Amino acid sequence: MKRGFCYLLLACCLMMSRNMASAQKKVGQYVLVIHGGAGTILKKNMSPEMEEAYKASLKRALEKGYGVLQSGGSSLDAVEATVRVLEDDSLFNAGKGAVFTHDGRNELDAAIMNGKTRAAGAVAGVTVIRNPVSAARAVMEKSEHVMMIGPGAEKFAKEAGLEIVDPSYFRTESRWKGLQKALKEDSLASAKSNAYTNPAKLGIINKDNKFGTVGAVALDKQGNLAAATSTGGMTNKKYGRVGDSPIIGAGTYANNNTVAVSCTGWGEYYIRNVVAYDLSALMEYKGLSVQDAGKTVIKKVGDMGGDGGLIALDKNGNMAMPFNTEGMYRGAVTKDGKIEIYIYK
Fold this sequence. Notes:
Substrate binds at residues 241-244, 264-267. The protein has 345 residues and is α+β, with helices and mostly antiparallel strands. Helices cover 39% and strands 21% of the residues.
């Protein structure tokens, strides 16, 4: 009996040792991390087919970015290529499949940042650029500016040779139905209060209407970091609202000395907390790990009343994926090509 117990104890110890060794191998091993938005994502509300579709999409994006990195491509090329895959996938609130504004339009925002030079580019409120992340990169590399908006950004993108599409390209039936639902809720709530005296009525009745942003952070073989984020913003958004995604330091940031960050969530709170830069500053000035810095900034968002998540990858290949919602579409790939994909808490 004692001998059997000893064998069982030894087997358990060996298993624990292997698991610890496996976990330790992950330290400093990540080269690409992505997200596809955070929100009330519950397994009970997800069909097996839909769950597999999301996982397949995230996997395709990771494989695309990893292929760029493996071939010696830059982290900047990797995050752009990765985000383009997600922008072209109607499952996500970015590019094709973007949510509708109150006026029934798809208005897109995106940003990209080079951790080596801290050069950055962004576009906001664009309606005809197929891949806003590429427009953001064009702003960074082909102009002296950091951000362009609306028709001006569209004109620039066309002159830069980017693909221009009819606005109908971005329309999907599910997003249109989402707008109709939000408009109905808006109408019912407005009957009870004056929208112009109640800040909660300014386009954020259902807080989950804002999720679905996509993003990527990468570390290349040369040790350079990059980050990119793209979004359709918030369902039923009004008055030309712009969130955190295209704002450098709020929703997107990369610095070779510390970390690359891409955020998703209630943009107003990310802007007010300068979340992406704050995470970097906590690492640079206080010496926090990427995991601790990530938890700290998400707590700040939550303490103020906001919600969402982020992905972060530090200069040593350590990553973090903190969020304070029910779920966040997310994934990562290691140096050796092992892919990890998660949806729920």
